[in-house]
Amino acid sequence: MSKMISYEKKNTPIHKLSGFTKLVFFLLWCFCSALTFDTRILLVMVVLGAIIYIVSGIKWKQVSGVFLAVMFFMVINLTCIFFFAPYQGCQIYGTRNEICHLFGGYTLTREQLFYEFNVFIKYFTVIPSVFIFLVTTDPSELAASMNGVRIPYTVSYAVEIALRYIPDIQDEFHRIRNAQEARGIEMSSKGKLMDRIKNTSAIIFPLLFSTMERIDVVSNAMELRGFGKHGRRTWYRKKDLTAGDIAVLAFIIIFFVASMIITFHDGNRFYNPFI
Amino acid sequence: MNKKFGIKEVVAMGIGTALFVVLTNVQIPLVIVPNTALQPRMAVLAFFSAIFGPIVGGVVGFLGHALGDALFYGSVWWSWVFPEAVVGVAIGLFVKKYGVEEGKFADAKTIIFFNVVQVVANAVAWIVVAPVLDILVYQEPANKVFIQGAFAFLGDIIIIGILGSLLLAAYSRIAGKSSNLKVED
Questions:
Q1: Among A200, B116, B150, B174, which one has the highest count of C-beta atoms within 10 angstroms of its own C-beta?
Q2: Environment class of residue A275 by beta-carbon count within 10 Å: exposed (0-12), middle (13-18) or buried (19+)?
């Protein structure tokens, strides 16, 4: 089981921002990266992302495992794109500059390389934003600040509960798996498909039923404390939006709108260097 | 707050999402096609949808997939997050018909009905929504995304069909029994 990224308390300008600001930044940043194929915008995002990453003081050790996993999936994805559609780039950019013939029906073209380069740097625009969001955002504070901007507190609370219980359920998962392994149930990648489904369900069954019990316990506790009785509630970790938050929000909205205009103004999402 | 969406649903959304996220890494690889494997977490998603309804199912699918991707893989593939919500909502729409909490999820008719719903839901999600979003948003090659979608569809209907049905049937047996007391003559 790979190590997960988790919140770490620190004192950097990024940590001081409100959770809501970081959530909006993260979402707009992701959508921007998904929608644009303009290489110039993507490169600006890579540089900005790297700067924010350095400012946020994240330790490399904390994220390196996940980073390597992303790289692994990225390489598979890029290879697959090439094998399934070696001329996707030519289709997109409308020209064809061959570099060399590889084998069979596969010829390496500059357009394809450029298209895959775009897909490649897209990963590097999203990765830092994910790391920054997860490592610098306090779950309780995030829920409080989401409610602060009129998101119903039931929704904020569901998000908070999710973030709060991930480590607990993970512990439980490990306990159950160890217990089942001690009983001699094979969990590794050996064995036939049906056997593996059966063995996996030896973990899922107890885990799911203990989770259902946990839901009962938590919801009873919340009911006893009168959760949901009033239309509003107060939060222990509430922080008001500061001038810094407003500035960051204004920046990301302007950045998002501007890059959408640059991307779509010529009716094509791609920046074409081949014309 | 109305009764239909109470405290239990809020907690179920939260803890269900957490469980879905934890199970992100429990996968049974099928073939070497990127990002496709038998995902036991899909069975858990179907379980929560079938018990708590479409809103909880949709949120668990959406939030769980986005968070799970972010926490384990460091990037979020949005065009596959939305179909996950589609599956959750679609299965949850027929929550009344399954009657899991009343112990009705035991006879063949209900289980077959559940499986028909899940196959249709998965077909819409992975053969229509996911590839179309992949092409629209990420401009990926069409044949690649349809093949990935088809494998995801197959993997999900297998795991929900087997593990999901078993989980629901087992839970229904326990939850349906309100007590062991019998009325005396």
A1: A200
A2: exposed
Q: Does B173 touch chain A (CB under 8 A)?
A: no
Looking at the predicted structure, is the pLDDT value of residue B3 above 50? no
pLDDT digits (tens, 9 = 90+) for A120-158: 998 899 888 888 888 888 888 888 888 888 888 888 888
Closest-CA distance, A11 to chain B, in angstroms, reads 22
Residue A189 confidence (pLDDT): 61
Residue with tokens 């990935």: B148
Q: Which residues contact A94 (CB under 8 A, 6 or more apart)?
A: A272, A274, A275
Chain B residue with Cα closest to A1: B25
Residue B37: its H or E element:
strand B37-38
List CB contacts of A127: < 8 A, sequence separation 6 or more: A49, A67, A70, B74, B75
Q: What pLDDT band is residue A187 in, cutting at 50, 70 and 90?
A: low
Burial (0-12, 13-18, 19+ Cβ within 10 Å), A250: exposed
Closest-approach residue (CA) in chain A for B138: A34
* Distance between B144 CA and the closest CA of chain A, angstroms: 6
Identify whether the C-beta of residue B120 lies closer than 8 Å to the C-beta of residue B3. no
Token pair for A49 = 């992302």
Average pLDDT, chain A: 86
- What is the per-residue burial (b if ≥16 Cβ within 10 Å, else e) of B10-46? bbbbbbbbbbbbbbbbbbbebeebbbbbbbbbbbbbb
CA-CA distance, B152 to B58, in Å (whole number)? 18
Say if the Cβ atoms of B14 and A173 lie within 8 Å.
no
Answer yes or no: is pLDDT of B177 > 80: no
CA distance B61 to B21: 10
What is the ipTM for the molecules in this complex?
Answer: 0.83
**pLDDT score of A164:** 85
Determine the pLDDT at residue A1: 40
Q: State pLDDT tens for residues A31-40.
A: 898 888 888 8
d(CA B29, CA B50): 26
CA–CA distance, B31 with A23 (Å, rounded to integer): 36
By C-alpha distance, the chain B residue nearest A68 is: B73
